Amino acid sequence: TLFTTYRLNQLTLGGGVNWESSNYTLATNPLGQTEKLKQDSYALVRLMAKYQVTPALSAQLNINNLFDEKYYTNIGFYSQLAYGAPRNANLTLKYDF
Q1: Taking phi first (over 0 means left), then psi (-120 to 50 degrees means alpha), and beta for anything else, what does residue 4 get?
Q2: Which of 21, 23, 49, 52 makes the best surface tag, with the fewest CB within 10 Å?
Q3: What is the C-alpha to C-alpha distance for residues 16 and 28, in angstroms, rounded to an integer?
């Protein structure tokens, strides 16, 4: 995991990457046979931009899984595979009282 931010006046830019090496597990399929479930290595890239509109108001945009990488968040848990979240973005307005 590696993340960084850079601030220039009211604008803050940031980005990072989460990398995971390949892994596998042995699971039993519904027919009672053992199968090897494998996840290749993958990297998830995130970006953020924050702008301080006023001392009390800020707007921030976060983009997760920038390259829309397909990966599993669960592999082998109760013999299941669960995909991770696809590319998504969040826009947040924050006002401090």
Answers
A1: beta
A2: 21
A3: 36
79 pLDDT tier (thresholds 50, 70, 90): low
**CA 35 to CA 22: how far, in whole Å?**
16
pLDDT of residue 82: 82
Sort 65 into a burial class: Cβ within 10 Å, 0-12 / 13-18 / 19+: buried
- 7-19 pLDDT, tens digit per residue, is 999 999 999 999 9
For residues 37 and 59, give the distance between their C-alpha atoms in angstroms, rounded to a whole number. 42
For residue 32, what is the DSSP state?
A: S
CB 70 within 8 Å of CB 83: yes
User: Pick from 11, 93, 6, 92: which is nearest to 56 by CA?
Assistant: 93
Count the helix, strand and coil residues of the chain and give each as a percent rounded to the nearest 5: 0, 70, 30
* pTM of the predicted protein model: 0.82
